[in-house]
Specification:
This protein is mainly β. It has two domains: about 120 residues, no CATH class; about 60 residues, no CATH class. It is about 0% helix and about 45% strand. It contains one helix and 17 strands. The strands form three sheets. Strands 1-3-5-9-10-11-12 form a seven-stranded mixed sheet, with no helix packed on it. It has a seven-stranded mixed sheet with strand order 2-4-8-7-6-13-14, with no helix packed on it. Strands 15-16-17 form a three-stranded mixed sheet, with no helix packed on it. The two termini are about 25 Å apart. About 15% of the residues have low confidence.
Length: about 200
Amino acid sequence: MPSQIFSALSKGNKVFKDTTDNNTFNVGTEATKVIISGKMTSGDVINVEGLANEYTVRASGRTVTLKSDTQTITFQLASGTGAAKVVFLDGSLNAAVGAKGAITLGGQKLSSKYAEVSETGLVDTDSSSTALDTAYAAVTGGSSSGGSSSGGSSSGGSTFTLTSSIDSPGSTSGDDVYLGDNNTTSAADQINGGNGTIR
């Protein structure tokens, strides 16, 4: 089936209708509340411009709600065959209808109470835990120091984590991911994505 792309990049609330096509939903940090109506199936992707550990998640029936301090994303999975890939800046998780209709994210069963989305790509069942400051090393399978490569990314490139020092990370021919925040990026960093796309 042809794919369709929907984007919620500006500030405010957005409602999208999931179609029978393979859909991609791009959710920027400015979007306050995003609702994807209709039932998502395998091939549908939600790209979230944020780190996994910035969100908590819960399920009510087949409805999944991701919530951060500034944003809420709600979507519904089709019964039996429902699935969707949720792609964060630091990794991706599969949301699916599991055994006996249970909703899972990253293979972990969700409940009606909010639980933290973990940097390991799983769900922390201790809902009282707080989000961590960084979510890099466990997702990429490598070190989060030295501005060096931290393992492969989902698009054929590598993931590089920036540090508080001046960084000059390498690049590959694939789509590389460069991770940093206000404390680890500076104008002096030298980033060259090579032939791939920097994400």
